[in-house]
């Protein structure tokens, strides 16, 4: 029968940095305290969250655009930014840049740019750059909005 520790009378073994590190990494973590009950969210806010889940679950640019085609009338700003960002992340993203749904999403972003947060600015700028999508009015508006909010950007 094997014992877990050193034999009796033997000097204790020193624990290496790595064995201590891995022991901490696999140790069960305490559960966070239960969150207090929050007020119920309006149905509209819940719907926007559902739409974002549909967009983020999409497996390709064409699937993202299919969600846009079906639900874009319900989109808020976050949904539209998410849709453009997900198209840019998709391997087939560049292939759909001329698609009518994508062009409509970009037009919506241009119209809502005054409401952008720094996160919206950076996600949209990354998406447009990743897709090598050329839209001078959007690029100019993004640059202008980013400059207005430069002090709000995190490093």
Question: Could you tell me the strand content as a percent range?
Answer: under 5%
Q: Distance N terminus to C terminus?
A: 56 Å
Percent helix, as a range, is: 55-70%
Average residue-wise pLDDT: 82
Rg, rounded, reads: 24 Å
Task: Explain how this protein is built.
With 155 residues, this protein is mostly helical. Helices cover 57% and strands 0% of the residues. It has helices at 17-26, 43-57, 61-71, 77-89, 100-112, 118-131, 136-148. α2 (43-57) runs parallel beside α4 (77-89) and α4 runs parallel beside α6. The longest helix is centred in the N-terminal third of the chain and has 15 residues, at 43-57. The model has no long low-confidence stretch (mean pLDDT 82). Residues 24-47 are annotated as: Disordered. Residues 31-47 have a biased composition (Basic and acidic residues).
List the keywords.
155 residues, mainly alpha, 7 helices
Summed up, what is this model?
The protein is mostly helical and 155 residues long.
Draw up the topology in text.
Elements: H1 17-26, H2 43-57, H3 61-71, H4 77-89, H5 100-112, H6 118-131, H7 136-148
Helix pairs in contact: 2-3, 2-4, 3-4, 4-5, 4-6, 5-7, 6-7
């Amino acid at each position: 029968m094997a014992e877990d520790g050193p034999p009796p009378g033997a000097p204790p073994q020193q624990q290496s940095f790595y064995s201590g590190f891995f022991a901490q990494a696999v140790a069960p973590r305490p559960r966070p305290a239960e969150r207090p009950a929050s007020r119920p969210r309006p149905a509209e806010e819940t719907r926007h969250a559902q739409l974002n889940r549909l967009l983020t679950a999409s497996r390709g640019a064409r699937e993202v655009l299919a969600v846009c085609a079906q639900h874009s009338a319900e989109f808020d700003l976050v949904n539209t930014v998410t849709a453009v960002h997900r198209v840019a992340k998709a391997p087939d993203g560049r292939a759909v840049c001329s698609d009518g749904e994508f062009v409509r999403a970009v037009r919506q972003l241009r119209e809502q740019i005054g409401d952008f947060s720094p996160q919206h600015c950076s996600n949209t700028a990354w998406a447009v750059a990743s897709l090598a999508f050329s839209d001078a009015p959007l690029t100019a508006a993004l640059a202008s909005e980013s400059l207005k909010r430069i002090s709000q950007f995190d490093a």
